[in-house]
Amino acid sequence: MDIFDTHAHLLDTQFDEDREALIASFSDVGLKLVMEACTDLGYLKKLIPFVESHPMIYGAAGLHPEELGPYALGDLDTVAAALAHSKIRAVGEIGLDYYWPENPPREVQRAFFDAQLSLAADHHLPVIIHDREAHGDTVDILRAHRGRVTGVMHCFSGSYETAKECLDLGFFIGFGGALTFKNAKRNVEVAAKVPLDRLVVETDCPYMAPVPCRGQRNDPTKTLYVLDKLCEIRAMDRAELAPLLFENGKRLFAI
Ligand SMILES: [Zn+2]
User: Among 68, 86, 88, 114, which one is least packed by beta carbons within 10 Å?
Assistant: First the structure.
């Protein structure tokens, strides 16, 4: 079986003790590819040597909406420079996060989101979208870039109507551990309807550990639990669904 975790944060300090041992165990569960999502410029600096030394791990470069505090739009030049690297296959994660009141002001988030979408369009790269409690503004800004950029709605949490808008804009829909939670009724309904050629799986590790690992550190091997939940939702078995999801991830990031 081939599995692609399309959204991970393996450079998070939670993996400092056992990162290489963990990566060495990926093949035991059929995990063949990982997309490492960047959050800030410090992260980006570590990301380049990390993807260079791990053939199965690719990277995205970008500024996360919660991490914009220290930056000006001119700092996106550093992100742009990283996009020329052969193992950087996306701009991300970028988007809007209106959940925490202490997050950067919404107009700042929107300006960085818009600028990073333009960056992706200029470099012909897909984007990894973080949208938390900001579905309306996210779709509005994506619509303004229609036809110039697509990518993936990571850890999708919106309604089917929002998913449909994103699908119409050419986006993939990513599901992670939240799909396995007891209160995931709406997520499950969306996952049942997304076309099979637009679905991808992810962990967002070390966060969002799926059932039955809730409360533990998440890691890419736990993509299996998300895959199994999707198998249940779509009434398919692993042998049918896993290859589709793997190919979708490769197509998404041109791997
Ligand atoms: Zn993430």
Answer: 86
